[in-house]
Amino acid sequence: MTLRLVLLLGTISLIGCSVFDDLKSMKKNMGELKGKMESDVGHLAKRADDLEREMAFKESSAMFNYFMELLFGERDREARTATGMPETAMLLYAEGAVRALLFQFWKGDYFEAFENELDQRFELSMAMVFARINDYIPRDFNISPPAVDWSELKVYPDRSYKALASFAARMDQVQPTYVKALQRHGLPNLSMYEVLVLALRDRELVSQVSPLPRTKAKILEWKNEAVYLLQLRHNYLPMMVMSRMTDFNDLTNFQRWWMKWTTKKVDLNSYSPAQLREWTAWLNSARETRQRLREIGIEPKYNKILGEILRSIDFGQEKILTKKAVTEAEKLQVDFAEAFTAITSDLESQPAESFRERMAGWFLGWGLDQQRSPSEDVPIVAEDTVVSPYLNVRDPKIREKLF
Asked: How confident is the model at residue 119 (pLDDT cuts 50, 70, 90)?
């Protein structure tokens, strides 16, 4: 009996040891398998992120160049003419170009340090922007060029000026997913406009610091161009308002010029609350840009032509500002009148155009309009000839010199 019990206990002990060893081996194998699976999943996630970044870069570059070609009228002959590209379409293409920039596709969830990843994307975006617009920026960076360039028989603001100004006016546009990514990481608004201001604020630093040091360094390689964009922005935003609330887009060159000497009557009651809110926001954005420029030690500059046209608008602003607003609609009108008056008051201290500039513009504006055919607004030039939007010269003697 005792022997049997000993044998039984021995057998059970051997079986227990074998099971225990098997369990240890299984646990070890499972641990190795888990580690391999985690490694494989991490590898796949990394490759997926790399693929997404690569696709975002290709798509961003293609979209950006597409909208910039439309904005500057590089795709076809019709787009290069003033009548073929209204200001509203230029603003649409400008916003498309800004929203297509690579940094707009940053989600803040890649394996690399999130700010370093964003900095690289933003740096590349700024390099693309300035390389793309460089040929259209005057080398003297004059925000208020002469009313007439007799060497080219061209009236300002010309096609390139308005395209650049449209882009500058839309630099604050951001993709919703990009905004959410910034918020998740506790970062402030980092639109193209904001980063330009930050870079110019830190322009005296020997080495740039966070946020986005590489991006700010890249922008400062194009410091004059960056300042030029901000100057265009605060001048053109009010002109966007004027273009929407008047028939400015339908006027000929001469009629636009004549607005400087006349008063353009406008009835605010004919516009919806949504329109007044949007226009007030544009005016306030222009004021904010002027204030930001002053804060970083850059004096705002003003375009005399656009300023004089803007001051010609009369929607009864003096009366609106003196009466007490009761209804919501009246409050919106007061807000708009206050913003408009603040914008135009900055212009009152600026010197007006000289008599010579006025007369030159009058004759050239009238002359170019007289040469325009009622049935054909496109210049008669070769398909591959880039022309000014205000040129529609039919005099063979002048055309011989120009083309």
From this structure: very high
